[in-house]
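Hi W., the coenzyme A complex you wanted:
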Amino acid sequence: MIIGSKIILRDKRLADVPDDYTWRTDPELAQLDAAPLVATTFQKYLSDYTSQLRYPSSTRHQFAIETLDGKHIGNCAYYGVNETKGEAELGIMIGNRDCWDKGYGADVVTTLVNYIFHQTNLNRLYLKTLDSNRRAQKCFQKCGFTSYGHLVKDGFSFVLMETHRKQWEKEQTKT
Ligand SMILES: CC(C)(COP(=O)(O)OP(=O)(O)OC[C@H]1O[C@@H](n2cnc3c(N)ncnc32)[C@H](O)[C@@H]1OP(=O)(O)O)[C@@H](O)C(=O)NCCC(=O)NCCS
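Structure:
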């Protein structure tokens, strides 16, 4: 369990399936994330989920996001871990709309970045978000991510953002 100021990051568990299925079949969330809408049945989703929990990937680490009083509000992950390049991609989704714009996202990202730079040898974390998703960009900027380019893929236009260990270390010495 990883504890932030407003949230807790914990391992995913089977009890998360109903929330995750609801969020992954929500058209607005899929659009904001430029992600495909899950079109499978709940039973199939549950079966795939069970295998993922049983056989976790070594290059993908995912966490459930809970408020401090234990409400499951979303998920985050670092994935595409490349030990040779010393980098990984970050992802976050707060499915519970009541929790948007209240600083949860920034606390999740800050907590996850702190965890990764403390617990791994990775030096660079990067992510992409839609050009149109100003909320997400603002959230990542608050956590020290800066834009390093643009990408057009599958008809979507993304801002590419990154943060580096050196920059993070500098920030640590200020606090
Ligand atoms: C993107 C997301 C992770 C951000 O988390 P969050 O808890 O809402 O973010 P925070 O409250 O920490 O920060 C959001 C900031 O954006 C600002 N904001 C909101 N809408 C905005 C807009 N249209 N333009 C500019 N800024 C905006 C907020 O005011 C806040 O800034 P502030 O703290 O200075 O007031 C979360 O909203 C989410 O998961 N949304 C749904 C899915 C999604 O967008 N996925 C894509 C992720 S890449």
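The beta strands are 2-3, 7-11, 60-67, 72-82, 87-94, 124-130, 146-153, 156-164.

W.
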